[in-house]
Amino acid sequence: MKKWLASALAAIVFMLAIPLGALAADPQSNINAQNYNTWDAVPVTSYLFENTLGGVTRVERRGSTALVEEYGADLLLKNSLEIPMELPLWGGFFAGSRYNFFVFGQSNPVERDSVEVIRVVKYSKSWERLGQASLKGVNTSVPFFCGSLRMAEAGSMLYLRTSHQMYADRAGNRSQANMTVAVRQSDMSVTDSAHQVEDVGCGYMSDSFNQFLLVDSERRVVALDQCDDFPSRGAVISIFARPAGSFTIADGNVVSVMVQPFPFVEGGDRRITGASLGGFGETETKYIAAYSFDGAGVSDKSADKAVYLAVVDKKTLEVETVCLSDPGVTTPQLVMTDGGGIVLWNETDKAGNITDTLCYAVFDGEGAVGETQKDEAPLSDCAPLFVDGQVMWYVSDGDSVTFYTLSDEGVSSRRVGAPFSDVKEDDEMYDAVLWSVKRGYILMETEDSFGRNTPARRAEVVMGLWRAMGSPEPKKLETGFTDISPEDPYYKAVIWASEAGITNGTTPTTFDPNGTLKRQDTVTFLFRAAGAAAPAGRQNPFGDVKNGEYYTDAILWAVDKGIAKGTSTTLFSPLRSVTKCELAAFLYRWKNG
Fold this sequence. Notes:
By secondary structure, the protein is mostly beta strands. It folds into three domains: 85-273, Lipocalin (Beta Barrel); 278-417, Neuraminidase; 430-592, no CATH class. 10% of the residues lie in helices and 36% in strands. The protein has six helices and 30 strands. It has helices at 430-438, 458-468, 491-499, 519-529, 552-560, 580-592, and strands at 3-5, 46-50, 56-62, 65-71, 77-84, 89-95, 100-105, 116-123, 129-136, 140-143, 149-154, 157-168, 174-184, 189-194, 208-215, 220-228, 233-243, 254-261, 275-282, 286-293, 306-313, 319-323, 333-336, 341-348, 354-363, 373-376, 385-387, 390-397, 400-407, 410-416. Helix 1 (430-438) packs across helix 6, helix 2 crosses helix 3 (491-499) and helix 4 (519-529) packs across helix 5 (552-560). The chain is elongated.
């Protein structure tokens, strides 16, 4: 096995021409989001860790927020909240021993050293924001560019390994490379960062398309990168000499180990390595890397790749690799267990489409791999978690969340949600109710009951609509209604609705927050919030909806858009009180239609 010491050499940098579209988009589904084929790895959006409730907590980037859901041992949802993204680019999340951390970023197209490009935000375990660390400039025009971000900790130190697009060179070209950062958790100060070509002695690699990081059992910071160019082309482990927990990483003494060389065909595209990294871990004596590879370094298709496991001896740094599959696989996932671990992947069909056929192979502490087994389950970018002797991960698709558990008996699954005693999973309204509760648009009636058939109160309807609109600030915090006050949770919502012409109250001086609302008025509120654009040429099929009334266009609009349904083909029942379930359905169809 070839072992070499990285030295500070002049970089021959292969230039990237990768569009910004290669960066992570807002995910609607995390299913097989771990799978990538060329330089299009992106930051992980889904995380799972054990909590103090005896269950697990999942954290998932959703649009401009991070959704946090805490589940009990029974996998019932106990708590839910959203953490706002403080900068527009998502970097990642890390559940530390004492704190939780989010990483955000923003582009720096003007290449100013005064621009904050990465922010590491510290939260308590009860999700209170405690502070931040900022990196400004750091030779970065776009953080997390064509790569990922992973974190590890030791003592009071937090370590980050990620990627970035660097400042333009004299020819105007911008290169991609990895970046390593050390943050002191106590005061959230950045104690060190390696982000220049000159930092090659600190594990710098040009064109690093995926990054993994761990602190090993001997308290050493160890990284795994997918490198296509400098200082070498392959999957490379970097072992930092200074003990983890110290305040600096830039001591210029990193030992590098070539795990898997990527051949290069003259005239080919260097960015295509034929490989994708899936996981990095350790046993007592070995480092373990899981990846897919075509064997030649030329393919950008899953159908051409097989799963490999690389086993690196910690003392000798000798590498042994074993192929675990035929070609036609996704980027694998790796989970470490008691004394060993498991590699998991999905197969592809002949056309290259990813299937739900799950393959997994167990290995021991020395890296000896058992027979590959198969079951049915999709993977995601949620790294599997080993808990209570079982492997667990989840997949999300919109608001649907399914937990998968792998044990000696094989794979079992459970679709999870809030603990509704009155709305079951097979209920037509379930997805709408779950969606509205998770986002705080409608509140539970009791700890375990949604209030399925309870008439929705006027304040409840307005507050649900206001929150679904993003909780806009009213122009002035005062109202002429004598029956609401600033202490009421719906105070701003009522003012906003009044200012927007959505509702004027029941009288000039009263809003009647606890009064119920009719179906005709609920859809009218939605109609007005949506801009009150009546459907053209829509015929009125309902015998109980009079033409020319204030609610007529609203009802026809809601039915035309699929937001509301009649109680029969010829009746809408406009005077019937709207229930909480119906309100949830109206909001859900309106926002997701």
